[in-house]
């Protein structure tokens, strides 16, 4: 699977949420806790995602670290036996870090809009425009730009890396 994604720091999450909920075409999906456990994978990024009211998944994704919209290739694998999979991944690759967040998910056409409060890092907005048979790369890029237009003036700097990268660099700078 593929999407086009980008992540921004945000200073005023309340204003972002107000803007999102003021647009009729944007639908609120949920607000809940998520925990991602990252592993020292041989290539790309691998993480187990644990979240309320959902089965655990192994997410593998590959994308460049750039501060502009970029293509991400990813797979989602349901985990019927979380304990066994976790133990195997920990033994074979090692755990890099755990990232905890409260996520609000909004949808606009094929764009998943994540308003995240990440423990130890603060507030972020992550956009993922899903590429599919219905929405090709060009249409997905257009929809992403529409959301960026809606949120004009409310976003801080775009981020190059993942929450794992940000957490690790913060620990490095603090230590």
Structural class: alpha+beta
Q: What is the number of independent domains?
A: 1
Task: Report the major sheet.
Answer: 8 strands, antiparallel, barrel
User: Topology as H/E string?
Assistant: EHEEEEHEEEHEH
What percent of residues adopt helix (DSSP H or I)? 25-40%
Silhouette: globular
In CATH, the architecture is Beta Barrel
Q: What is the CATH domain class? A: Mainly Beta
Strand tally: 9
What order do the strands of the largest sheet run in, or round the barrel if closed? 1-5-4-3-2-6-7-8
The mean pLDDT is 95
By DSSP (H or I, 4+ residues per run), the number of helices equals: 4
Radius of gyration: 16 Å
Beginning-to-end CA distance, first to last residue: 38 Å
Output the CATH topology. Hypothetical Protein Pfu-838710-001
pLDDT below 50 for ≥5 consecutive residues: which ranges? none
Beta content: 35-45%
Describe the protein's architecture and organization.
By secondary structure, the protein is of the alpha+beta class. The chain has a single domain (2-174), classed as Hypothetical Protein Pfu-838710-001. It is built from four helices and nine strands. An eight-stranded antiparallel barrel has the order 1-5-4-3-2-6-7-8, surrounded by four helices. A hairpin with a 3-residue loop joins β7 (111-118) and β8. The radius of gyration is 16 Å and the shape is globular.
Features:
alpha+beta, 44% strand, eight-stranded antiparallel barrel, 175 residues, Hypothetical Protein Pfu-838710-001
């Amino acid at each position: 699977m593929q999407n086009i994604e980008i992540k921004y720091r945000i200073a005023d999450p309340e204003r972002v949420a107000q803007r999102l909920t003021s647009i009729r075409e944007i639908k609120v999906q949920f607000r809940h806790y998520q925990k991602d456990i990252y592993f020292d994978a041989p290539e790309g990024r691998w993480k187990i995602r644990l979240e309320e009211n959902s089965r655990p998944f192994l997410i593998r994704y590959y994308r460049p670290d750039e501060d502009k919209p970029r293509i991400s290739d990813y797979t989602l694998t349901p985990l019927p036996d979380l304990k066994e999979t976790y133990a195997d991944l920990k033994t074979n690759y090692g755990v890099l870090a755990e990232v905890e967040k409260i996520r609000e998910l909004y949808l606009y056409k094929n764009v998943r809009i994540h308003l995240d409060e990440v423990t130890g890092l603060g507030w972020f907005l992550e956009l993922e425009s899903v590429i599919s048979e219905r929405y090709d790369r060009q249409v997905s890029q257009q929809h992403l730009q529409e959301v960026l237009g809606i949120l004009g003036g409310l976003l801080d700097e775009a981020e190059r890396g993942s929450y794992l990268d940000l957490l690790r660099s913060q620990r490095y700078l603090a230590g």
